[in-house]
Amino acid sequence: MKKFILSIDQGTTSTRTIIFDEKFDIVGSDQLEFKQLFPKDGCVEHDPLEIFETVLKTSKATIKKAKLNVNQISGIGITNQRETVVVWNKETGEPIYNAIVWQDRRTVNYCKELAKKGLAKKIQKITGLVIDAYFSATKIKWVLDNIESSKKLLKDNKLLFGTIDCWLLWKLTEGRSYFTEATNASRTMLFDIKKNCWSEELLKIFGIPRSILPDVKDSSDDFGFTTLLGGEIPIGGIAGDQQAATIGQACFEPGSIKSTYGTGCFMLMNTGENIKISKNNLLTTIAYRINGKNTYALEGSIFIAGAAIQWLRDSLKIIKSAEETEKLYGQNDKTQQIYFVPAFVGLGAPYWDGEARGAIFGMTRNTGIADFVKAAIDSVAYQTKDLVLAMERDSGLSIKKLKVDGGMVKNEQFLQFLSNILISLCDRPKITETTALGAAYLAGLSLGLIKSTKDIEKKWQSEKVFKPKLHKKEVKYLYDGWLKAIKKISIKKNRNKN
Question: Model pTM?
Answer without folding.
Answer: 0.85
